[in-house]
Design brief:
The protein is α/β, with parallel strands linked by helices and 386 residues long. It has 15 helices and eight strands. The protein is globular, with a radius of gyration of 21 Å. 49% of the residues are buried. The model has no long low-confidence stretch (mean pLDDT 95).
Length: 386
């Protein structure tokens, strides 16, 4: 394992039906002016908005609404939130929703404290924000693990770039299994694949030796696969939902990344594809992952073979590493079909090969787990997935 230092700033409240009591306790220690942030409407349709609004009022807070945060949050939406924070003297941000709401608010928290444009501040000046508006997160859909870290993925529409920005860590996050019942089941499945993707992108990073971090990762992957299957059989299964919620947290709280160089090439490709198409994140990853792995498994055959055996239960006797590795990649592809996610871009309504070329030419290139993909190879791969 590589050397590392580890500390973790986010306080986690995990349980079933814990939101009201936890909010009442935590809000007592926060400022009076609260920005209540949420997404496109399910939070209101299910009554969760009214419930949280009442808790805020009973806690003596002045509430400013920041709604309509989209699934792929835009930089313009971030600036809208930062303006609201300044205009209303906001001293606490409460993000209610999934990863998009959390991502947007983490960046709002940072932008509101500096005069410079945050995108230029981070990408041009190569600086990181150091002051933030305090924030908390109430998670309604797990999968992204966004509440666990200070990274955010934001679409800059003018630049046609969907890329990472660094913002605030949440002071605390509420992971209430009951709230996952308030979002469409399709979002649950898509989010679950994002969890599995985070695990795989970390697992296949360097070094490739079989260390304790990777063995924990294998366990989280197996647990994710088992529990999404259980949830498909019974969407009301709260035990499966609770397992998946913690899987999501484990994939992004840093534990699985200790001592490793991670590789997020599939994510970087999907992010840029979404900059041009606004596609669903989990669905895009579902198409991209098997395609990337079919191209690189031979370059990292022993690691892929171990993953095939430990995660997918592929028999290894009498087979080469390459054979076992490819069987695991095909097991992943079969699982994607099993859980109802798309296997081609046509299923997602994406058929314009010009978009594939633009994506390949502009996505961030990572060092790669087995080898670094070049732009022509990425284009060919995307076109083959049509």
């Amino acid at each position: 394992m590589n050397p590392f230092n580890y500390s973790y700033p986010v306080k986690i409240y995990f349980g079933d039906g814990i939101t009201e009591q936890t909010l009442e306790t935590e809000l007592a220690n926060k400022g009076k002016n609260t920005l209540l942030a949420y997404g496109g409407g399910s939070v209101k349709k299910t009554g969760l908005y009214d419930k949280i609004h009442k808790i805020l009022l009973n806690s003596g807070k002045n509430i400013s609404d920041f709604g309509g945060i989209m699934p792929n949050p835009t930089y313009a939406k971030v600036q809208e939130g930062a303006r609201l924070v300044r205009e209303n003297n906001i001293d606490f941000i409460l993000a209610v929703g999934g990863g998009s709401v959390s991502d947007c608010c983490k960046v709002v928290s940072a932008q509101a404290k500096i005069e410079e444009d945050l995108w230029d501040y981070e990408y041009t000046l190569k600086k990181q924000p150091e002051e933030f508006i305090p924030m908390g997160v109430v998670v309604t859909v797990s999968g992204t693990g966004s509440e666990q870290n200070n990274g955010a993925v934001i679409t800059h529409e003018e630049k046609q770039v969907k890329g990472p920005l660094w913002g605030a860590f949440a002071d605390w996050a509420i992971l209430d299994v009951e709230l996952t019942m308030t979002v469409p089941f399709k979002q649950v499945v898509s989010g679950t694949f994002d969890t599995l993707s985070h695990c795989m992108e970390t697992y296949f990073g360097k070094p490739g030796d079989n260390n304790v971090t990777d063995e924990i990762n294998e366990s989280v992957q197996r647990n994710t696969i088992r529990n999404i299957r259980a949830l498909l059989e019974n969407p009301e299964d709260r035990t499966a939902r609770s397992e998946l919620m913690w899987d999501s947290a484990m994939a992004e709280n840093g534990i699985l990344k200790l001592g490793k160089q991670t590789d997020f090439q599939c994510h970087m490709i999907e992010h840029q594809l979404a900059a041009y198409t606004d596609c669903n994140h989990g669905a895009g990853l579902a198409v991209i992952h098997p395609a990337v792995y079919r191209r690189i498994y031979e370059d990292y055959a022993p690691k892929f073979a171990r993953w095939s055996s430990e995660v997918w239960g592929i028999a290894v006797d009498g087979k080469t590493d390459e054979t076992v590795a490819l069987e695991g990649v095909e097991a992943l592809a079969a699982f994607i079909r099993e859980i109802g996610l798309p296997c081609t871009f046509t299923e997602m309504g994406i058929t314009d090969k010009d978009v594939f070329r633009k994506t390949a030419d502009s996505c961030i290139l990572t060092p790669g787990c087995a080898r670094k993909l070049d732009r022509n190879e990425i284009y060919q791969m995307l076109a083959e997935c049509e």
